[in-house]
Amino acid sequence: MTGASRGLGRAIAATALARGDRVCLVARDKGIVEAASALGQDAIGVAADVTREEDIRRACAAAAEQWGGIDILVNNAGLHRGGRVDSLDLDDWEQSLATNLGGPMKTVRNALPFMGEGGAIINIGAVVGFRGFPGDSCYGASKAGLAGLTQVLAVELARQGIRVNLVVPGFVSTEMTQGLSERAKSAIIAKIPLRRMGDAEEIADVCWWVAGSTYMTGSVIMTDGGLMCSL
Ligand SMILES: NC(=O)c1ccc[n+]([C@@H]2O[C@H](COP(=O)([O-])OP(=O)(O)OC[C@H]3O[C@@H](n4cnc5c(N)ncnc54)[C@H](OP(=O)(O)O)[C@@H]3O)[C@@H](O)[C@H]2O)c1
Q1: Residue 215 annotated among the catalytic residues of the structure
Q2: Which residues lie with the beta carbon below 6 Å from any ligand 1 atom?
Q3: Separation in Å, CA 104 to CA 39, 126, 191, 194, 197
Q4: What is the pLDDT of residue 21?
Q5: Is residue 175 part of a domain?
Q6: In the chain, is it the N or the C terminus that has fewer CB atoms within a 10 Å radius of its CB?
Q7: Which pLDDT score is estimated for 211?
Q8: What kind and span of H or E run contains 13?
């Protein structure tokens, strides 16, 4: 479970733990180790950066050593960087792709040796990966790439009995969206048919049942209050 130190990742980990799963929480923040141990004996924490393959190899090995393998991988770690294409900072472009797209690819290939028949991979996409939001070229390109990667992996890994799906949250209240002005938030909420932001727990619940849905692979599961329908 990557990006588990806060926001959606924290909620997905908490939901899985509450429903009886054992979870390895991964994030860069070294506090993840202590935070996980406070969650009880079914959780461990590993400080790792998903852009660094050696880190992610260590995290996957730690999870497998602790629990005897990896059944479910959730690629949730992500960052948002804005900027119109004519003025965007190239470091932001590279960092976005390295984290939101390169991170899941590296995590999948390091988790695979520990996964087997019945395994499930959940990638966390974004509406921005399917629609053109001005100023979101870095984020949109990285999340569109993740949608493509999900489809390739669904086909490649089917023969190993591993399913791969993309859960697409809409507009959820977390640190990532906290920085937006009230005006910007209201403008987005006005486009959401359900007229509200989502709760992290609502996304976590969807991730949990997608992980257990044995005839679902290569799917895009919109969890966005209807946002994409209205764009
Ligand atoms: N919030 C929304 O409205 C929304 C909508 C659509 C999609 N999403 C997606 O949902 C996911 C979670 O977003 P969020 O809203 O929960 O964001 P958040 O509150 O900013 O949390 C991001 C998480 O990712 C971790 N992370 C970032 N870079 C990392 C790296 N290089 N290596 C390891 N961990 C890293 C962070 O931990 P550290 O800083 O400790 O590493 C943190 O735990 C992201 O993929 C995001 O794109 C969010």
Answers
A1: no
A2: 2-9, 27-29, 49-51, 76-79, 99, 124, 126, 169, 171-172, 174-177
A3: 25, 14, 30, 30, 26
A4: 97
A5: yes
A6: C
A7: 98
A8: helix 7-18
